[in-house]
Amino acid sequence: MNIQSKLLRQPLLALLLAVALGQGAVQAQVPGAPTPLQAQPARQSASAALAPMLGATKAGQRIVAVGDYGIALLSDDDGKHFRQAAKMPVSSTLTAVSFADDKNGWAVGHWGAIVHTADGGENWSIQRLDTQEDRPLFSVHFFNAEEGVAVGLWSLVLRTRDGGKSWETVQIPAPPEGGKADRNLFKIFVSPKGSLFVAAERGAVLRSEDKGQTWHYLNTGYKGSFWTGLALADGSLIVAGLRGSLYRSGDDGKSWQAVDSGSKSSLTDLVQVDKRIVGVGLDGVEIESHDGGISFAGKQRDDRLSMTALVAGGNGLVRFSRRGVAEQTPGSKP
Of 289, 198, 199, whose CA–CA distance to 242 is shortest? Predict the structure, then answer.
């Protein structure tokens, strides 16, 4: 099975693949010749804020989002206005971003790209790029300016202990029910006490207690894909994904219960804001819980704009979508 057919098994992965294929993100020096591919820098665009965004986070008080065409967006006014990063050395799709402090950040994406910034997202440099095989990275987390983990296609796990100057491949064990360790790893999230979790396909949640060096599987009882996850301040865990599926654990992952998310559309991101848990998804869906994830209520945008990422700004939530920075939900219905 080639990489394209493998990716098309998942709707969100199909979306990621579709936005990557038409870009010319990396090009051969001579068409058809077996020469090394060369990364092309992202172009500056007046319409950068309309590009599909797939990941967002905070760098101190700054909001940083990444997405299609290697575009990184920055906002210093809680999401009211965005500008494009000055320098991004890749134009392939970026899927996720993580900052260790207000200056040092890392973004990951297609072609196994890992790029680093030391100035809060203004300028980026390549730390890793695998032009032999487009094996995308889907998520990244840095514990501090030195230690970080990135995960991606077919159980790819990379770990650094020197700020990304070098990355080692971590071999994760085969799943307990048998078969190869080849599940797609979609979203890293971390508990308040430092446990590392990954939401993955086929109902898998993986856990590491040593910053990504060793892993084991948690049995959720679900068979579909989890695209996102969240560890609450009280230690509860929530994972969500395909067709609105949402599972919660109140005992640190020992047992899981299915929760009605209030939606049948796939969920792409979750955040905790004060005592609220808010999630967004495809088809303009947004869900919210006021009881620690025990129950959720959903609403839907009239324009059904597919939402891809969410971050808490000083003036409320900032939403990102397949059409870039999203307006506040205009005319949503319960």
Answer: 199
